[in-house]
Amino acid sequence: MFGPQKGASADDVARLDAGLDRFVDALGSAGVEGARRAAEAPGAGAAGGVGFGALAVLGAQRVAGVDLVRDLTGLAEALVGADLVVTGEGSLDEQSLGGKTPMGVAQAALDAGVTVVAVCGVTSLDDARLADAGFARVYRLSDLEPDADRSMATAPALLESVGQIVAGDLAQLRAVGKVYRSTTRPERTRLG
Predict the structure, then answer these.
(1) Under a CB-based contact definition with an 8 Å cutoff, are residues 101 and 130 in contact?
(2) At 138, phi and psi to the nearest 5?
(3) pLDDT tens for residues 126-170?
């Protein structure tokens, strides 16, 4: 599922799937009960099959990563009194909407009544999808540096620039008494 997002070609994905299938068969042949069932469980393919290994061999139980991180970090408590939550990932896309970390953070922020924005390298989601996901704004590094290779090479500087833009936008909206969820967007930031 995430292989292509990480750069795997269709041939790479087919080879990886075949290799994992052989591993499942080998564990089954070695007497690991439930190897096939574990291989078909949600999350089994995570991290190149580490999820499967943990389920089949270690007897692990599947827990959504974002839920575990939210609990371990005390995110709900940390949101009390917050003015803004910033979350993000490299590519904010359909897979993100399926429960990846930015969505879990956004949901926690919304539950706490805190405005949430996202920072990403790129997004394939349109304004409506981003708003439906709960993001007041999305700041894309690709708006500052459209060349993907240069964007990745200069990501720290770009993130610093985006941080300054976010802070300026928040200060500007506070100064005029508008809530951060305003539909007014400075030209330098675009949704979608």
Answers:
(1) no
(2) -130, 125
(3) 988 998 898 988 999 999 999 999 999 999 999 999 999 999 888
Q: State the pTM of this model.
A: 0.68
- For the stretch 48-72, pLDDT in tens is 677 777 777 887 787 777 888 889 9
d(CA 92, CA 105): 13
User: What is 66-175's CATH topology?
Assistant: Rossmann fold (3.40.50)
Helices marked H in the chain — which ranges? 10-29, 35-39, 46-56, 65-73, 75-78, 94-97, 101-111, 127-132, 141-144, 148-153, 155-175
Could you state, in order of their start, the residue ranges of all structural domains in the chain?
A: 4-56, 66-175
**Distance between CA 112 and CA 7 in Å, rounded?**
36
- Sign of torsion, CA 163 121 136 73? negative
Eight-state DSSP code of residue 140: E
Please, are residues 98 and 141 in contact by the beta-carbon 8 Å criterion?
no
Helix pair angle (46-56, 10-29), 10° resolution: 10
